[in-house]
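Hi C.,

You asked whether I'd gotten around to modeling the 223-residue construct. I have! Everything is below, sequence then structure, no commentary in between.
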Amino acid sequence: MAKSYIIVGAGGLARELFHNLREKCARAARPGETPAECLGFLDDVKVITTGGYPPIIGTVKGHAPRTDCDYFLGVGIPEVRRRVALLFKGSENLFPAWHWLWDNAALARRGIAVGAGSLIEQGQVSCDAEIGRFALVSGMIGHDVRIGDYCEIAPGAAVSGGVVLEEGVHMGACSTIAPGVRVGAWSKISAGSAVMKDVPPCSFVVGVPGKVYEDFFVPPDGE
């Protein structure tokens, strides 16, 4: 029998993740094998869901991680992903890296490394790319790209070859980054913007070409 799993979060992204996982697990099951089952959601806020979803089985804070199942992080926004992931410090190995478009062997042949807890929901990843822990990728990733922990790349976003995204960078929908650019930690790129030059940490980028507003955000926990 395939391994069961728990989704951390219970909002829209978590429910989307549930549907994707259920379909993926059904396709992966061998003939006669029961597909992996979702045991439920973890969330600290009561979220109303319609019928057809597993129950909310507890809260994130105070949850004792189970070693008999996998966990998937179903929350968005890099700062929130980091805060929730830190509640599982020491148990990151319970969060597998998950890829929708290719299996692990295909990713290995392409020279792609994906950290624990990261999700590639859609889009494409070229070759020789490195994706950190607990990142959420739904865009186009070029060759030799380095994506830090907790980054979020929204649908339609495009990261050109040789780009480096430091920890916690958020790319809005349909934004783009030119080749070789480095984006500092915890910066945010607004939807539809084009980043043409390096961006300092904690900046906000908006427009085409992107205008950089430095020191726009404070790093999480004042770090």
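If it helps when you're writing up: The longest strand covers residues 38-42.

Thanks,
B.
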